[in-house]
Amino acid sequence: MNYKHPSEIMDEIALLTPTFTGVSYKLIDQLGSIQWPCNEAHPTGTPTMHIGEFVRGKGKFLVTEYVPTREKVNAKYPLILTTAVFLSQYNVGAQTRRTENNVWHDEDRLEIHPHALKSVESSRGIWVGIRSRAGETVLRARVTERVQPGVVYTTFHFPESGANVITTENSDWATNCPEYKVTAVQATRVSQPSEWQKAVPRFH
Are strands 79-84 and 136-143 parallel, antiparallel or unpaired? Predict the structure, then answer.
């Protein structure tokens, strides 16, 4: 990307997004703050979006049919990986990882049932290789019965964990939301992080 200043990114957003067409760094400097929509109809923004009623009424509900996932377990990928977030971290952690919240959660761990790993001597410091149809990564494990025997769980707050490396490209047909909750994987004991994870420090 050849941006020379963040204002150029804002200009591109304004060009492509109808509710932001009037936003620019110059106007932000002039007004101090702009609430969208900001366009020809609302040149200085919209401090209060809904007055009297909501823009599109009280809501619109549509009944949709259940569409099962294409992701299936088999002999090669016998476990289902599901992902979620911890209360102390927000989404990919770009903001919360910069705070003292790391005291509660300082790395992504793989929660795995004892039955899924053979000869588990300790619940600390175990490196587990996770491979899916999409890719592979390595996580330190937390052996626990909080998860079902056929399920493994992790968060995705830290880039070096690689949760996005192993989740598939499947998405919801209506919203296009990625399918992060259902990924068929295999889990094996390993002794160290993957090669791409070893290279992560170079990018910091």
Answer: unpaired
**Could you report the per-residue pLDDT of 106-134, keeping only the tens digit for each?**
889 999 998 887 644 445 568 899 999 99
Q: Say if CB 73 and CB 139 are below 8 A apart.
A: no
pLDDT tens profile 32-84: 999 999 999 899 999 888 888 877 777 778 888 888 889 999 999 999 999 98
Nearest CA among 83, 166, 152 for reference residue 111: 152
Q: What is the DSSP string of 118-129?
A: SS---SSSEEEE
How far apart are the two ends of the chain, measured CA to CA in Å? 19
Question: In terms of C-beta density within 10 A (0-12 exposed, 13-18 middle, 19 or more buried), how is residue 204 classed?
Answer: exposed
- Answer for the pair 194, 137: CB distance below 8 angstroms, yes or no: yes
Beta-bridge mates of residue 80:
151, 184
Rounded Cα distance, 65 and 81, in Å: 24
What is the rounded distance in angstroms from the CA atom of residue 177 to the CA atom of residue 183?
Answer: 14
